[in-house]
Amino acid sequence: MAKALEHTHRGWLYQRDDRQADLNVRVFLEQDVATVGVRISKTPLHDRWYQQGFSQIPRRVHVDCKSTMW
């Protein structure tokens, strides 16, 4: 699949390490259904600058509660 994307989208190069990629395309196949996900940032959601403050919130607070505290 990576070779096909490189061929049809000139300038795209496959990176083995996700952290090196500017664009991350993921295809999930289940039976006859394909789901495509695209990340357009080098940084995963859990490593973004606005997520860093969560480490200061007590761990006993549920994750959903943490997100409403911002």
Keywords:
70 residues; alpha+beta; two-stranded antiparallel sheet; 2 helices
Describe, in plain words, how this protein is organized in 3D.
There is one protein chain. This protein has about 70 residues and is an alpha+beta fold. It has one domain. Helices cover about 20% and strands about 20% of the residues. A two-stranded antiparallel sheet has the order 1-2. Strand 1 (about 25-30) and strand 2 form a beta hairpin. The protein is flat and about 45 Å long. It starts with a helix and ends with a helix.
Q: In a nutshell, what does this entry contain?
A:
Helices cover 20% and strands 20% of the residues. The protein is α+β, with helices and mostly antiparallel strands. A hairpin with a 2-residue loop joins strand 1 (24-30) and strand 2.
| Helix content range | 10-25%
Total DSSP helices: 2
Number of domains: 1
Query: How large is the share of residues in beta strands?
Result: 15-25%
**Element string (H = helix, E = strand):** HEEH
- From the spread of the alpha carbons, the general shape counts as flat
Uncertain residue ranges: none
